[in-house]
């Protein structure tokens, strides 16, 4: 078959090539028969030469914080575009547990239906909580999976007629699947810029609130529940616990905006009091803004692992945060606004596959120009091929863009970097062998 394909005219070979790309983008490659097209496109390299280049400051990963005399390590997952059901992170979590040698669980996962004090009549999403253990070493990790996509389902239903039986049968089969994929994913960034944004950020805020104020044994098993703020009663947990966030595509923007919203609520509670619909919520806002919890948060260092980073893309057309370009003033002990920061540091580890059409590396000075100085952000770029590069026809180097966008969750190097970091004594042997590291100081 390869010999026959070689003698196709150049025009026909291009046609087959682009049809094959279309199948890839629609996620239908598994349905293509073992014929000419697959024989051509599955000619993968025998040696895995996919790149992994890390540039920035060293980072520790999750592993060092798993054994603590006091407190726990808590990890939040925030998904990106597309509809996500509860448990969407299970495959990734299983790989992370194996990498961290956490071979036990504390019973079944708990599922909290999120309700926010400022939006009591809205169901914001689901928070699925799983606790992983190593009973021999005492290591422990609590994993919080946020599923917020129910907030965009209703608005995306406006496009339902486009894929209904009245319209869809008129499309070619490949285009039909492409259209369904597009209608599920592309509207989310647009929806996020509209009225649903505050609801999505409230879902993030509730997730962080549950993570910061409760331990596994105190969490409800299921049902609708409200977390009512970071009051003084929880300051010991905030001081002792370690927080980590893992986000994907739009979820990275939601994470940073969510932290900025929390900072704004603590700094300007009067802006939110008018939204309080009962005295209990009003009192919660007042107490949170004057509590010792703020001082405890200012000492926290939170790493955020951004998979398929899109911060430059999602910055387009947005207003700047209230405080930018003042990192020295907010983040250095001698700075004029040092006591007004929200966190001591937000370490952004941005993963981007160059073949991911929806992912972007973060250029120098981006954090100084576009990120809230109150978060004290620092950036490390991870340029990594998570999709395999293959040869197609006479052209060397083609990668499935869909795999390049979603493959972070199953890539062993990504999991190892999140678990054990780089540039430290416990860096994984896989990372030492497969990744290049260039330390770039954060001045």
For the structure shown, list the relevant keywords.
single chain; 443 residues; alpha/beta; 2 domains; 12-stranded mixed sheet; 3-stranded antiparallel sheet; 15 strands; 37% helix; disordered N terminus; Alpha/beta hydrolase
Task: Explain this structure.
It is a single chain. With 443 residues, the protein is α/β, with parallel strands linked by helices. Helices cover 37% and strands 19% of the residues. It has 20 helices and 15 strands. A hairpin with a 4-residue loop joins strand 6 and strand 7. It is globular. The N and C termini lie far apart (58 Å). This is Alpha/beta hydrolase.
What topology emerges from the helices and strands here?
Layout: H1 2-6, H2 10-25, H3 36-41, E1 43-44, E2 52-56, E3 73-78, H4 90-99, E4 104-105, E5 110-115, E6 125-134, E7 139-147, H5 150-156, H6 165-168, H7 173-185, H8 187-192, H9 197-213, E8 224-226, H10 235-240, E9 242-248, H11 250-267, H12 270-273, H13 279-289, H14 292-297, E10 301-307, H15 311-315, H16 327-331, E11 345-352, H17 366-370, E12 377-384, E13 389-392, E14 395-399, H18 401-406, H19 412-420, H20 429-434, E15 436-439
Parallel strand pairs: 2-15, 3-7, 3-9, 5-8, 9-10, 10-11, 11-12
Antiparallel strand pairs: 1-13, 2-12, 4-6, 5-6, 6-7, 13-14
Helix pairs in contact: 4-19, 9-11
């Amino acid at each position: 078959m390869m010999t026959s394909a070689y003698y196709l005219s150049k025009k026909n070979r291009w046609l087959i090539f682009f049809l094959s790309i279309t199948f890839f983008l629609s996620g239908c490659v598994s349905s293509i028969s073992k014929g000419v097209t697959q024989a051509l496109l599955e000619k993968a390299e025998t040696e895995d030469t996919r790149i992994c280049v890390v540039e920035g400051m060293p980072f520790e990963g999750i592993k060092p914080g798993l054994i603590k005399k006091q407190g726990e390590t808590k990890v939040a997952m925030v998904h990106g575009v597309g509809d996500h059901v509860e448990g969407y992170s299970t495959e990734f979590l299983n790989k992370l547990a194996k990498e961290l040698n956490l071979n036990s669980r504390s019973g079944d996962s708990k599922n909290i239906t999120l309700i926010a004090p400022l939006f009591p009549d809205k169901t914001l999403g689901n928070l699925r909580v799983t606790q992983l253990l190593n009973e021999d070493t005492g290591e422990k990790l609590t994993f919080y999976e946020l599923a917020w996509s129910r907030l965009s389902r209703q608005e995306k239903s406006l496009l339902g007629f486009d894929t209904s039986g009245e319209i869809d049968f008129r499309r070619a089969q490949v285009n039909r699947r492409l259209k369904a994929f597009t209608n599920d994913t592309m509207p989310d960034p647009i929806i996020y810029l509209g009225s649903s944004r505050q609801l999505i950020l409230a879902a993030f805020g509730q997730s962080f609130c549950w993570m910061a104020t409760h331990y596994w044994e105190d969490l409800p098993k299921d049902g609708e529940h409200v977390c009512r703020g970071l009051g003084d009663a929880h300051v010991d947990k905030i001081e002792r616990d370690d927080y980590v966030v893992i986000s994907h595509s739009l979820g990275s923007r939601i994470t940073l905006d969510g932290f900025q919203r929390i900072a704004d609520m603590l700094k300007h509670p009067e802006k939110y009091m008018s939204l309080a619909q009962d005295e209990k919520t009003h009192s919660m806002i007042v107490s949170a803004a004057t509590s010792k919890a703020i001082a405890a948060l200012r000492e926290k260092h939170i790493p955020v692992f951004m998979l398929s980073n899109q911060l430059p893309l999602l910055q387009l057309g947005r207003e700047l945060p209230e405080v930018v370009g003042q990192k020295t003033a907010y983040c250095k002990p001698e700075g004029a606004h040092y006591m007004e920061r929200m966190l001591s540091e937000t370490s952004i580890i941005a993963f981007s596959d160059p073949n991911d059409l929806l992912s972007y590396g973060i250029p120098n000075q981006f954090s100084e120009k576009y990120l809230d100085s109150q978060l004290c952000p620092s950036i490390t770029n991870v340029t990594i091929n998570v999709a395999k590069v293959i040869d197609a026809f006479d052209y060397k180097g083609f990668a499935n863009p869909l795999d390049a966008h979603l493959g972070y969750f199953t890539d062993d190097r990504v999991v190892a970097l999140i678990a054990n970091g780089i540039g430290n004594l416990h860096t994984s042997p896989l990372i030492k062998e497969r990744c290049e590291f260039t330390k770039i100081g954060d001045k």
